[in-house]
Write a sequence for this structure.
């Protein structure tokens, strides 16, 4: 049998779920300030020549 009462098990579960939620939120938002947002893409230098050769690497039919 468990050494914890049912109330203690519920309280421990609540604390662990709150900590898990904080951990998930941190994992999702950690480093999100470096994400490239729509409209923030780098504008290429107009002096550079476009790549006119299609990429031929990869799988073929």
């Amino acid at each position: 049998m468990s050494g914890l009462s049912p109330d203690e098990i519920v309280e421990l579960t609540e604390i662990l779920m709150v900590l898990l939620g904080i951990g998930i939120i941190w994992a999702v938002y950690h480093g999100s300030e470096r994400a490239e947002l729509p409209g923030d893409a780098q504008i290429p230098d107009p002096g550079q020549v476009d790549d006119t050769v299609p990429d031929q690497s990869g799988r073929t039919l």
